[in-house]
Design the sequence.
């Protein structure tokens, strides 16, 4: 039995959605040291929110900011279009060429979905269900941000994800984003979703295999850790890494990832014409990594614009996306 410090447990239990959580199970799986670090960071967000709420000005910052954004869109005649765009993710299909890819994986199709923030756009689940029913793929990977806010109840978002689950296929793997509580990892197995928090699984096909690895969020929680993955990554002919934010590109390259799939940035979400992002919420990350394909040393990266929206249910000059990455054995034709 792993004990969680009583003080931390008291802070967690102050929030009703954490009261029924089996923390001993989480500690047994992830280890008490990791769990304590992760949960302490989660509680720091609640402390920050409490500080805002207790300050007369802080209380109004977020609502005013969100209303201001919508007012700005309305004043420029873009609000209706921006709301429509938030509900019209594009389907993208692209190839990733890997010289070391085992032959059996040539043509392997990976559906990549990210940044749902379901509670901000409740109709997103229905839109995705319709869209995904038309797409064929071998495996589905989710790169985090299921909840809208980065604190508070997550039930509504999980229900939406569960409603989409039937169209995600037989094999679904997921990492967490900076908006996600670790506690949802206890719910994923019942939904037929395999969570990867600094863990990896072998994907097998035709007697051959590649590694699918996932790290915890490196943007806010900073609880990502490549150490437990290293031995398997060294052994793997090809490693596909799931990381919520592309900010871990240097560590991914050092660990030997071949492919890195991310989200987090929303591609800017509210952009200037031409999709030029104004804000992307990344630190020390090249602009090329804010959306689409990029390369860093041996890593072929891809940052999805995500399916949903954050803060407000609007997108401007930056549609969301549903992506299928098709793995190809060989070298890209120029
Ligand atoms: Fe996000």
Sequence:
């Amino acid at each position: 039995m792993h004990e969680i410090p009583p003080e931390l447990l008291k802070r967690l239990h102050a929030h009703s959605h954490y009261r029924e959580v089996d923390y001993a199970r989480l500690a047994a799986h992830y280890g008490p040291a990791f769990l304590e670090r992760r949960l302490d960071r989660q509680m720091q967000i609640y402390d920050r929110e409490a500080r805002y709420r207790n300050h007369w000005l802080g209380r109004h910052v977020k609502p005013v900011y969100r209303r201001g954004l919508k007012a700005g869109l309305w004043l420029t005649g873009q609000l209706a279009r921006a709301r429509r765009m938030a509900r019209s993710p594009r389907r993208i299909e692209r190839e990733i060429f890997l010289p070391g890819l085992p032959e059996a994986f040539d043509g392997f199709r990976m559906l990549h979905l990210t940044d749902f923030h379901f509670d901000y756009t409740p109709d997103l689940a229905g839109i995705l269900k319709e869209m995904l029913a038309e797409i064929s793929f071998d495996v589905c990977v989710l790169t985090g941000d299921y909840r809208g806010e980065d604190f508070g109840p997550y039930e509504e978002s999980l229900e939406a994800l569960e409603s989409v689950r039937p169209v995600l296929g037989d094999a679904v793997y997921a990492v967490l984003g900076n908006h996600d509580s670790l506690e949802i990892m206890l719910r994923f197995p019942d939904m037929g979703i395999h969570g990867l928090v600094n863990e990896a699984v072998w994907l097998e096909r035709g007697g051959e295999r590649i590694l699918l690895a996932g790290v915890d969020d490196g943007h806010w929680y900073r609880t990502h850790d490549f150490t437990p993955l290293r031995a398997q990554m060294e052994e793997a002919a090809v490693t596909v890494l799931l990381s919520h934010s592309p900010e871990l590109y240097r560590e991914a390259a050092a660990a030997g990832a071949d492919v890195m799939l991310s989200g987090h940035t929303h591609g800017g979400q509210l952009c200037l014409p031409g999709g030029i992002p104004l804000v992307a919420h990344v630190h020390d990350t090249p602009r090329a990594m804010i959306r689409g394909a990029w390369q860093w040393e041996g890593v072929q990266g891809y940052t999805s614009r995500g399916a949903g929206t954050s803060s407000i249910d609007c997108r401007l000059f930056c549609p969301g996306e549903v992506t299928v990455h098709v793995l190809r054995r060989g070298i890209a034709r120029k």
Observations:
- The chain has a mean pLDDT of 94.
- The chain has two domains: 6-53, 89-329.
- The pocket of fe (ii) ion is lined by residues 115, 117, 145, 177, 179, 264, 266, 306, 310 (CB under 6 Å).
- The CA atoms of residues 126 and 164 lie 8 Å apart.
